[in-house]
Amino acid sequence: MQPPLFSCGHVTFVGAPNAGKSTLLNRLLDHKLSIVTPKPQTTRKKITGIYHDDRSQIIILDTPGIMDPKQSLHESMLEITRRSLRESDVIVALIPFQKGDEPIDRKFASELIEQWVKPTGKPFVIALNKADLVPEETAKEAQTEIISKYKPVATLALSALTGGNIPELVELLRPLLPFDEPIWPDDILSTEPERFFVGEIIREKIFLQYGREIPYSTEVVIDEFKEQHENNPSRKELIRCSVIVERNSQKQIIVGQKGAAIKKLGQAARKEIEELLDRPVYLEIFVKVRPDWRKKKNLLKSYGY
């Protein structure tokens, strides 16, 4: 009997900020890889997650949300998304359901498909996320409308939050990928280095702890990442990082009265970093002011944009 053919290829998740791309990636991998917060534009860089099963390896590119760019940072984020779309074999366009009179944002859906997805010439699937927010009948009607209007290879309603129809998405994607050997060993979940995820964890805690514009005005740079010495495994790993802000007033908010806020940030981040690395760490956080860093292309480049 012939063994089943193995599929391996790249799939890009694309959609608006807060469409649920990162939640979907984490659900597929059954592992928290992408940071997730209730605030839009949490994802700023491409995150590569690798889904494995006995018939396929799906290399998923989670991208920054598509929005109207207001500064150089946004332009750089959109360029990351464009590049990811070019690299992919298949595109999953995520369109979330919403409560109210209109089950989906039709204007944005049209812009997403016509301006971003179709021009690539790649096969695409439309995933209607947050299906747990609407009745089943509404979801079916939206699917019919989407198929008729945009002619995707397939469409399905799913819920990244609850896990509804996630296996069905894998079944849809598998035959669209090239028949090929796996690229990565099956114990690897991402191609990003540990220090990248350490920075992302700190950034997530900033999004969760601080209000208003503070999270959007900050960037996290890992300055030093010293791994434990083999001869002394009990020694804590040293991680020094800088939280970049644009104004001195923002620095004062990050630090807080008598350093209380930055201490709370460090405690929350360290706990999750230790879970990620599975070893104890000594975390030092400094705050640096770089005026208008989001508008300066040379600084953006040095921060990996």
Folded structure, characterized:
The chain is an alpha/beta fold and 305 residues long. The protein has helices at 21-29, 72-87, 106-117, 136-150, 166-173, 194-209, 248-255, 260-277, 297-302, and strands at residues 7-15, 47-52, 56-62, 90-96, 124-129, 154-157, 219-226, 237-245, 281-289. The chain is built from nine helices and nine strands. Strands 2-3-1-4-5-6 form a six-stranded mixed β-sheet, sandwiched between helices. It has a three-stranded mixed β-sheet with strand order 7-8-9. Helix 6 runs antiparallel to helix 8 (260-277). It is globular.
Secondary-structure topology with pairs:
Layout (H helix, E strand, L loop, with lengths): L6 E9 L5 H9 L17 E6 L3 E7 L9 H16 L2 E7 L9 H12 L6 E6 L6 H15 L3 E4 L8 H8 L20 H16 L9 E8 L10 E9 L2 H8 L4 H18 L3 E9 L7 H6 L3
Parallel strand pairs: 1-3, 1-4, 4-5, 5-6, 8-9
Antiparallel strand pairs: 2-3, 7-8
Helix pairs in contact: 6-8
Compact overview of the structure:
The chain is α/β, with parallel strands linked by helices.
